[in-house]
Amino acid sequence: MPFKLPLPKRLANPWAVKIRDKECLEPPHVTVLRGMQAWRWNLRSGGFMDKEPDPAEVPRELVELIVDHWAELRAKWDAMYPENRVRSDGEERSDE
User: Which domain holds residue 62?
Assistant: First the structure.
């Protein structure tokens, strides 16, 4: 079952931030959605994974919300995809 980050009303239409199903082989990420457009945000390194669509189209407030929920999003990914965790047990966390 996908995870959807709750967003404030002013962002929820037309935006969504999700960890989708069936992405266990990709690097850990959340998908930022606006209609049919999708941007991937890397949960290991932070930052957008693709140049297209242009990451500058994503509102700064939405990016800040992802960063504010960093630990929660990483934990949700790890729970959904334990075979492709955000970090290995021996890896030091960069957000501590």
Answer: 3-84
